[in-house]
Specification:
CATH architecture of the largest domain: Beta Barrel
Strand order of the largest sheet: 1-2-3-4-5-6-7-8
Structural class: alpha+beta
Radius of gyration: 32 Å
Strand content: over 45%
Number of strands: 8
Length: 174
């Protein structure tokens, strides 16, 4: 009888362990699934156009360009050239020069283009007018269609021949 009780006790003990093991597996499985779901970013709930923007990465940009005029008037310059630095790319800038230097730009990068506008305060010193301000990306095409950000915009204009030297320094989302 003692042997029977011991066998029955062992059988119940094994059943309880299996039952506990199955329950633990279910709890562990539930925890793993919950952790995976909670770790998933909220990208699925984000509109598609916003998801692509998040995939752009912050890039440190230091670009210098020596541009020559293709057209100019007393208050408007259209300049072309090639930027060198982070990218080597053709650049076009259209500037309006009044109490502020304002304008638009387009850079033709490999894989697309970026566009934006500039605003700077000029300082005239004889033959040259220098300026310091900001460049703001408003978008682009191709792989740069969600480009954004603001960077420093610096430069000088030779007031005799309208040659323009510009520099862009900062972090941009490209």
């Amino acid at each position: 009888m003692v042997a029977e009780t011991s066998s029955a006790s062992q059988s119940r003990s094994q059943t309880q362990r299996r039952s506990f093991s199955t329950a633990a597996s279910r709890v562990l499985g539930t925890v793993v699934i919950a952790a995976a779901v909670s770790a998933m970013p909220a990208i699925a709930a984000t509109p598609r156009h916003r998801r692509a923007h998040r995939s752009s990465h912050l890039t440190y940009v230091r670009e210098t360009a020596h541009l020559t005029p293709s057209a100019h008037s007393s208050l408007r310059l259209v300049e072309h050239g090639t930027g060198h630095g982070t990218f080597t790319a053709p650049v076009q800038i259209v500037l309006s020069i009044k109490s502020r230097v304002t304008g638009t730009f387009t850079a033709q990068l490999h894989g697309g283009s970026i566009t934006g506008y500039t605003s700077a305060k000029p300082h005239i010193n004889g033959r040259y007018a220098s300026f310091k301000g900001t460049l703001k990306l408003t978008g682009g095409t191709g792989r740069y269609r969600h480009a954004s950000g603001t960077a420093g915009f610096y430069g000088s204009i030779d007031r005799y021949n309208y040659h323009l030297n510009v520099q862009v320094i900062g972090h941009l989302h490209l």
